[in-house]
Design brief:
Elements: H1 6-54, H2 58-83, H3 85-94, H4 98-124, H5 126-132, H6 137-150, H7 154-169, H8 174-196, H9 205-230, H10 248-282, H11 284-320, H12 324-351, H13 353-358, H14 368-381, H15 383-401, H16 406-429, H17 435-466
Length: 467
């Protein structure tokens, strides 16, 4: 029977639309779940390192924190560039162009090689940088020991990120998760052996911790390379074919797309680091409570971060096949999924916030009850921040699928610094809110950022649908 009446066709169209939305949700979850778990696995490795370093001395923990700042600031430049591999490969995959998928990974590997050299030089000069910033000479020297071991793992870590983007783009992110899960106990064992000098090995302490991370980075890269060259469907792309050929036009694309991502990462990282400085100006209890609440926030963010990576790929696939409706569907499903899961996790944290905070503190900690109370309050105040952070994490991922990274960078500068930091400073020191005012300011900045990103995606998706 032919449905010629629009009233008769409407239920059929609605059912078809509902089916496509359900299918999009399933495909997004299939990509997002292993990606989010991979992020959590990486946090597990850094947490293990901190636990082992903490048994050396309090000074070693402080030095590791300083070394982490130096390493992160330099490494973020490479991470942003490698993030550009996923949308380019996904668009090529959606267009049914395996040669371009291969070129995206191959060019990403070359970019990682070139950018690694200046990145490595920065942590190798960590001690004079830290001393110039006013840090104690002893702590700076210990931080340099850690960086001497850590710096050499930059190149394999970036290569692994490029492979991760390629695997996600071809709808196979699971091997990266398997490699990461295997790396967690391997990293713990190797770090323990090299830090404490067990089983006859030399006791290398912080240098050993950095060296263990470098060794694990090489191991994960080699495992990823084995998958892409030996296992289907990855080996069908023959990613190492004519590897010596440098694709300059695609390299420029990676830089144009990836550089704004790197700067946006630094703006966000700088905002929360600066918020810590504001807390330090208030008092030590405020700083401790902020660090605990911030660590919980980072863990929560791994879920929408994984969904955002999936959004990049799903939107990129739709771009590659010139599917305007698919672009809107992929972006909106990811944003709604990120908001929903963030809200559920936020509710769980709020209900258990006191017990959660106590996991980070020993009873011997000074002012433990005051710190617990303030951190729990910050988590309650940050409920809006958690949800909107989830929305912005997925929305920015959807925009990357459209190769749109420069305007989101402008949004980050306006939202985080012009609005968020200014509000945090004023509320902390010109009102009675104090430490709570800092988190209100962070929440305001994140709300503005999320709103701008969603409106930007809506505008771009509608424009593509019209053209």
């Amino acid at each position: 029977m032919t449905l010629s009446n629009p009233i008769e066709r409407a239920p059929v169209a609605a059912a078809a639309s509902g089916h496509r939305l359900a299918l999009e949700l399933v495909e997004t979850l299939k990509l997002a779940a292993p990606m989010a778990l991979t992020q959590i696995g990486q946090i597990a490795m850094t947490t293990t390192d901190l636990v082992l370093i903490g048994r050396i001395s309090d000074e070693a923990v402080a030095a590791a924190g300083l070394a982490g700042i130096i390493y992160f600031v330099s490494f973020t430049l490479g991470i942003g560039l490698m993030a550009a591999v996923a949308p380019l490969a996904a668009q090529a995959f959606g267009a049914g162009n395996p040669a371009l998928v291969r070129r995206a990974l191959r060019t990403g590997l070359w970019v990682a090689l070139f950018i690694s050299l200046p990145i490595i030089a920065f942590p190798l000069r960590g001690e004079p940088i830290l001393r110039a910033l006013g840090q104690a000479s002893t702590t700076s020297h210990l931080a340099q020991d850690y960086l001497f071991g850590l710096a050499w793992g930059v190149m394999p870590a970036l290569w692994f990120q490029a492979i991760r983007g390629f695997m996600g783009a071809v709808n196979r992110p699971q091997p990266i998760l398997w490699i990461t899960l295997a790396a967690i106990p391997a990293n713990a064992l190797l770090a323990y052996l090299l830090i404490y000098g067990a089983f006859g090995l030399p006791r290398l302490e912080l240098f050993g911790a950095g060296l263990a991370t470098t060794a694990v980075n090489f191991g994960t890269f080699l495992a990823g390379l084995w998958f892409v060259t030996q296992r289907k469907p990855f080996r069908d792309y023959d990613v190492l074919a004519r590897f010596w050929r440098i694709d300059r036009s695609l390299m420029r694309q990676i830089i144009v797309i990836g550089a704004p991502i790197s700067i946006a990462f630094l703006l966000e990282y700088g905002l929360f680091s600066s918020a810590g400085l504001l807390m330090g100006l208030i008092n030590t209890t405020a700083l401790a409570a902020h660090q605990i609440a911030l660590q919980i926030t980072v863990i929560l963010f791994m879920v929408p971060f994984g969904i955002g990576m999936a959004a990049t790929i799903r939107v990129g696939h739709a771009v590659g096949r010139n599917d305007a409706a698919g672009i809107k569907r992929a972006g909106y499903v990811a944003i709604l999924l990120g908001a929903t899961l963030s809200a559920i996790l936020t509710l769980a944290v709020i209900l258990t916030r006191v017990a959660t905070v106590r996991l980070f503190l020993g009873e011997a900690t000074a002012n433990v009850d005051e710190t617990v109370g303030l951190a729990a309050t910050l988590l309650a105040v940050g409920a809006t921040l958690f949800v909107t952070d989830g929305i912005q994490g997925t929305a920015v991922g959807a925009l990357r699928g459209l190769n749109d990274t420069r305007v989101p960078l402008l949004f980050a500068a306006i939202s985080y610094w012009l609005i968020g930091f200014s509000a945090a400073y004023v509320l902390a020191f010109s009102t009675p809110f104090g430490a709570i005012g800092v988190w209100i300011g962070l929440s305001i900045g994140t709300v503005v950022h999320a709103t701008l990103l969603v409106l930007r995606f809506r505008w771009l998706a509608n424009r593509l649908a019209r053209t």
